[in-house]
Design the sequence.
């Protein structure tokens, strides 16, 4: 029975690997091992707990305000001291974080096969998103099995020279997680959102946290949200990321505004319920780029470039950058023009049909079967 280590450290990786881990736990063909790097410890643990998952191994690399190279180095250092002892047959990494890069590199250096979920996303610009685009491309060079969420991402990999028989198009597991969240939605635990069922104002759900938004752009975004909240019949709800680089800029603008509700990051299922309740979503989060359009919510993406163009092409997401004027004008148009609103409010199925988990597990099982067959041929 192959033993497979999932190595990750951030909330989105946990959410997007959770359905696969839980399916593997029930599947006698595999033995999953969950390794948390602790890159974003608290948010990661909250997300995992919702899916009933506890890490088997904690690397606990988190330190306040550490640099990217410090995180990467600390993960690699801890992995290299332990990875051989786990007796694993493959490492699964997801997406494009520092944990993804360090996890893959450690596996490569110890000659352990690498399976990459959400492989092949490309913005086409190595400097943006930074450092995620570089992380994805680097990991692709040493990956043994690429699990691409969309046809486009598989084409990106083929263009870069990945072997066709090492790529499987699976759909994105985030859609599976969304389905699970919708079926298991609890009541809002957050008191500041308890009044939502009686809310008649239009709801704008907003968030911003990515590195490119830090500094001056974050001020622009905060000013836009304040201006929007001053429009008639609008309530802006902001689940705030824990990163101090975000909180220190945004909180002085948004606290104590009449039509703005700031809450701490929500547990995943509550956040999904909030997205379902939203009229529009304004965010620089990659998760929102997939989840908003999958739910048919018009999504204004606070970025100039994306590695997830499918929803933009389908018309449910729009890249609006980070200037106050553009964010306010695009959001106002959506809130005031019903035709424009209904043109954008169309669910997009480009990211998956909710069956990605089954395809991921099937592809991993086939990978091991082919691998075992090759090994026994060599032995004979
Ligand atoms: C800046 C950055 O590192 N971005 C990476 C991150 O994206 P991303 O920007 O999506 O990371 P987030 O921390 O926003 O996490 C998004 C996930 O968290 C959930 N959520 C959000 C708010 C909340 O209060 N509660 C909650 O559970 C969302 O539903 C979503 O599933 O992971 C993606 C998937 O690996 C990568 O492609 C991105 O490059």
Sequence:
């Amino acid at each position: 029975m192959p033993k497979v280590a999932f190595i990750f450290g951030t909330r989105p990786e946990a959410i997007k690997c959770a359905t696969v881990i839980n399916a593997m736990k029930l599947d006698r063909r595999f033995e999953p091992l969950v390794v948390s790097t602790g890159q974003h410890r608290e948010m990661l643990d909250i997300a995992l707990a919702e899916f009933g998952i506890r890490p088997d191994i904690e690397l606990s690399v988190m330190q306040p305000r550490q640099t990217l190279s410090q995180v990467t180095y600390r993960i690699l250092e801890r992995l290299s001291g332990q990875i051989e002892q786990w007796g694993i047959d493959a490492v699964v990494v997801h997406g494009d974080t520092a944990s993804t890069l360090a996890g893959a590199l450690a596996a490569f250096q110890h000659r352990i096969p690498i399976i990459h979920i959400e492989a092949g996303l490309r913005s086409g610009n190595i400097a943006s998103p930074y450092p995620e685009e570089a992380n994805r491309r680097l990991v692709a060079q040493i990956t043994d099995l690429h699990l691409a969420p969309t046809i486009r991402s598989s084409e990106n990999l083929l263009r870069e020279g990945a072997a066709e028989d090492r790529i499987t198009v699976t759909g994105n597991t985030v859609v599976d997680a969304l389905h699970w969240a919708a079926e298991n939605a609890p009541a809002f635990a957050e008191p500041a959102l308890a009044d939502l069922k009686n809310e008649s104002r239009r709801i704008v759900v907003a968030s911003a946290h990515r590195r490119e938004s830090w500094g001056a752009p974050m001020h622009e975004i905060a000013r836009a949200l304040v201006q929007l909240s001053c429009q008639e019949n609008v309530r802006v709800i902001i689940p705030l990321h824990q990163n101090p680089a975000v909180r220190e800029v945004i909180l002085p603008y948004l606290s104590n505004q009449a039509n703005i509700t700031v809450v701490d990051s929500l547990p995943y299922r509550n956040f999904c319920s909030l997205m379902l309740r939203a009229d529009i979503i304004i965010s620089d989060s990659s998760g929102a780029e997939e989840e908003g359009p999958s739910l048919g919510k018009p999504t204004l993406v606070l970025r100039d470039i994306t590695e997830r163009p499918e929803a933009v092409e389908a018309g449910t997401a729009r890249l609006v950058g980070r200037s106050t004027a553009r964010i306010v004008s695009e959001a106002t148009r959506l809130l005031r023009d019903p035709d424009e609103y209904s043109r954008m409010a169309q669910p997009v199925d480009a990211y998956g049909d909710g069956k990605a988990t089954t395809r991921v597990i099937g592809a991993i099982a086939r990978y091991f079967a082919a691998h075992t067959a090759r090994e026994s041929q060599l032995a004979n």
Summary: The pocket of uridine-diphosphate-N-acetylglucosamine is lined by residues 11-13, 15, 47, 94-97, 118, 129, 132, 210, 239, 265-266, 268, 271, 285-287, 291 (CB under 6 Å).
